[in-house]
Specification:
Belongs to the PHAF1 family. The chain is mainly beta. The chain has six helices and 23 strands. The chain folds into two domains: 154 residues, no CATH class; 285 residues, no CATH class. Helix content is 9%, strand content 23%. It is elongated, with a radius of gyration of 26 Å. It starts with 38 loop residues before the first strand and ends with a strand.
Length: 503
């Protein structure tokens, strides 16, 4: 989702795609003259499964994105006077006014203009009777990828009428709204508008760099346990990433050069290093006790770049010895970061996965991928719009049983507690090991992203309510970190997973 597109914008739904009165609408190119973001509507308690609506009243537009994949699915033109719309070099409405003039002073295109000048013959549309005492109902005329709402006198409507003659008569008014969507017609697409697989790939425009070509885009990560991740791609065969074995050169060959290489040494969290006896066999991630905490390096959301490695160009990586000993490969347009370091033992296999636990690697000077950080790009979160959203599924056994990037954390936690229940020495130990640490992203001197918490700490902040009475996240935008074997979840107060680290 892009919050600050440049003007002019060519909007093509499904590559990256508003609603009628209880209805909603690709074709050609519809070109608004400019876009200015006014406000957005996000379901604060469920931002990943409900549509996200961007209201653009200064441009007369409303954009609707699906929650899970964050693809633009629907564009509504609600005020034709606010923007110039062009289809195949033909104005949708002659003489549309500029955005600085009052709204509501210009009607939309007439049926004759739509029928004769723009799109030509069409199948009959749908009539929606008025919901109140209004004398006008709404006739929705649909073409492939675009639909118009025409007010029609309810007294003139009849199933037996020729809709062309009816809409050409004085009983019909010019269109009051237009919808742009991907599909053959509005009646066929509306029920699956936000759930059908998009036809086109995402735009690889989250990165600030320009490229002539892009690596095949990532559709989803399947987390198998034991340091194994299967990467499902749009057209290429799935790719297996093995933590501690996959090299930086393997990543570059499959995903292209990273958008940035980042190294930062931050030791502020080392105060929480514990000296107790931990369960090394279980490889518990925080807040387990007794495991050493590496430097809390951070990556792409840090706005301070003085500590990043400007000398290492992402496009000129050849000799592995030229890389810093520990660094992040930031793939903004793929939605993930990879931590590059010397081989370490990955997290254990899930008990029902059928995979063997990974063995301890031999000492080596070969740099490998030791962690993968999957970014949720949750609307309203501190790092929003830095990475493209990464979708994932955790497979706890050999079936498709598990949870996904859209699952609320309460559901995730319940499944993981059940998975690992036999590995704890009683309820007190289980509760102690699942206490969260609070992470504040609202202050510039706070740990930022790709958090390297792989050990334990003694002090935590008591977990309070995730949301206020109005369902909005109050306070400083703090998140909570929850650790399980091989997995580290960063969770917002509404229960959405903002980031998942697999190690």
């Amino acid at each position: 989702m892009a919050a600050r597109p440049a003007a002019p914008v060519h909007i093509v739904p499904g590559k990256g795609s508003g609603c009628f009165p209880a209805q909603c609408p690709n074709s050609g190119q519809v070109t608004p003259s400019s876009i200015s973001l006014d406000r957005s509507i996000i379901f604060p308690t469920d931002p990943l499964r409900k549509p996200v609506v961007l209201q653009l009243p200064s441009n007369g537009l409303r954009l609707r994105f699906d929650g899970p994949d964050q693809r633009l699915r629907l564009i509504e033109v609600l005020d034709f006077s606010r923007t110039n719309l062009v289809y195949k070099n033909q104005d949708v409405l002659k003489g549309a006014k500029s955005a600085d003039q009052p709204a509501g002073s210009s009607q939309g295109p007439s049926f004759r203009h739509v029928y004769n000048r723009l799109f030509g013959p069409s199948y009959p549309g749908e009539y929606v009777p008025p919901a109140d005492q209004s004398p006008y109902g709404t006739y929705v005329l649909s073409y492939p990828g675009v639909a118009f709402s025409f007010p029609l006198q309810h007294s003139a409507w009849s199933d037996q009428c020729d809709f062309v003659a009816l809409l050409s008569s004085s009983a019909a008014l010019p269109a009051t709204s237009m919808a742009i969507f991907q599909g053959p017609s509005w009646p066929e697409i509306r029920a699956k508008l936000f759930t059908q697989p998009p036809q086109y790939p995402r735009f690889s425009a989250v990165s600030s760099k320009t490229r002539d070509s892009f690596a095949d885009e990532v559709e989803e990560f399947h987390i198998l346990g034991a340091g194994k991740l299967e990467v499902v791609r749009r057209t290429s065969l799935p790719l297996l990433i093995s933590l501690g074995e996959t090299t930086p050169q393997d990543l570059i060959a499959e995903f292209g050069p990273p958008d940035a290489i980042y190294r930062k040494h931050d030791r502020r969290i080392s105060i929480h290093r514990a000296a107790g006896v931990g369960n090394d066999a279980l490889h518990l991630s925080p807040p387990a006790r007794g495991m050493d905490i590496p430097d809390t390096d951070h990556s792409s959301t840090n706005s301070i770049t003085d500590d990043s490695d400007d000398d290492f160009s992402p496009h000129s990586i050849g000799d592995p010895t030229s890389l810093p000993a520990e660094c992040f490969f930031n793939y903004f347009h793929h939605g993930f970061d990879a931590f590059i370091s010397y081989p370490t033992t990955p997290g254990p296999a899930f008990p029902g996965s059928g995979l063997p636990d990974p063995s301890t690697p031999l000492p080596s000077t070969q740099l490998t991928v030791t962690k993968i950080i999957l970014h949720g790009n949750v609307p309203g979160s501190y790092p929003f719009n830095r990475h493209r959203r990464s979708r994932w599924m955790v497979h706890l056994d050999q079936s498709d049983y598990g949870f996904t990037s859209e699952s609320p954390y309460d559901e995730i936690s319940a499944q993981l507690r059940e998975t690992w229940k036999d590995k704890y020495n009683g309820t007190p130990e289980e509760r102690a090991m699942q206490r969260p640490m609070v992470l504040n992203r609202g202050w510039g001197d706070s740990p930022e992203n790709s958090v390297e918490f792989l050990g334990g700490w003694e002090e935590t902040t008591a977990r309070g309510p995730r949301t206020g009475p109005d369902g909005h996240d109050g306070g400083l935008g703090n998140t909570e970190l929850f650790g399980y074997p091989g997995l580290l979840f960063e969770v917002l107060k509404n229960g959405a997973v903002s980031c998942l680290t697999v190690y």
